[in-house]
Amino acid sequence: MRMSKMINILLLITCLVTISTGHKNNDMPVGLKEEDLELERQLSILNKSPIKSIHTKSGYIVDCIDINKQPAFDHPLLKNHKVQKKPIFERNITEKRVQNSSINPKFILVKFRCPRGTVPIRRTTKSDLIQDKSLFNAHNVTQNGSINKFARVYLKQASSPYYGVSGTISVWNPKVYKGQSSTGYLYVLNGEGDNINKISLGWHVSPQLYNDGETHLYLFWASGKEGCFNMLCKGFIQVDRSYHFGARISKTSTYGGNIIELPLKISRDNVGNWWLKVVDKDIGYFPAALFSRLSTRADEVGWGGYTVTPAGTTSPAMGSGYKPDNDATHASYFKFVKYLLIIGTEVDPLPLMVDTYNDAPNCYGVTNYQKTKKDFGYSLQFGGPGGNCRT
Hints:
Blueprint: H1 2-27, H2 30-46, E1 52-55, E2 61-66, H3 105-108, E3 118-122, H4 126-139, E4 146-155, E5 164-170, E6 181-190, E7 197-205, H5 207-210, E8 216-223, E9 226-229, E10 237-238, E11 261-268, E12 274-278, E13 281-286, E14 300-310, E15 332-340, E16 346-347, E17 354-358, E18 365-370, E19 379-383
Antiparallel strand pairs: 1-2, 2-3, 4-14, 4-17, 5-11, 5-15, 6-7, 6-14, 7-8, 8-9, 10-13, 11-12, 12-13, 15-16, 15-19, 18-19
């Protein structure tokens, strides 16, 4: 009798454990499990075994990765790609515009010196991948519940082809809240919609992506539905061992006071690779194989800013938070703006080539100054306070 009672108790416990286990398995939908496994798979590809790891004051980790084992080489289109250390042009192009800037790159950019043969890559977290997907859709102007606003100067498609873009931007730290972002950037573009090919380079404030309200150096690329911010997917090949994308910019401009500048350039070399240059460093490149349209040329280039905010909310500040007023210490600017010819030569835009785009004039402004500003060359201002941008 006693034995029978014990057996019944054991059977009851077994049933309860089975029911409990069943509930746990049903708590997570199958689709969610698959999504979580996919994120883990991406993390295993992006976070390579480091030769050295650096813990930054900003709280994230930078890994020094073997230059020949970085994530880009896991892209199916780059399996046999060999690292190209420098841009290939028909002749050497001397950079004179950097001398016009008073910027000290060591002063504002978090900089590391990875061991020879390695490159610095910000370590990716699962949260980074989730946020990147949302921001990629917003930046790529797809329907994801976000509102984008742009204020930019661009060169008309009728005047193309273009083989790059350059300029020196003033760096700011606009107030941005969770779910919002604010950017100052230059870009090259070919195509539209699902067939868009685009590369952007500049500074970025995005609490959603960086988990802080600081200004960061960023890149963005899209080839159709593929692409990402910074190094959050396979594609970009890093060659410089000091700067890294996603780095915090330690010093930004002050309204009416000290202005911090950052020279930037995107250029296509003779073999079709697109190089990103920050100050005096060719940080790396996008191989031509990644693009269906940009591999040959860009049909639009431009400079300016954009913001993103969730639907139903007011838009954040762009640039300095002030509209253009012809004062370089007030609104954010680009100076010495150029487009590139096929041999890499940088050329001033002609007035008939230039147009402006501003889809929220009550929130932001954009003004093209051409060569009217002393020591600025062809320049422009952009930005504003944001707010309720519905027109």
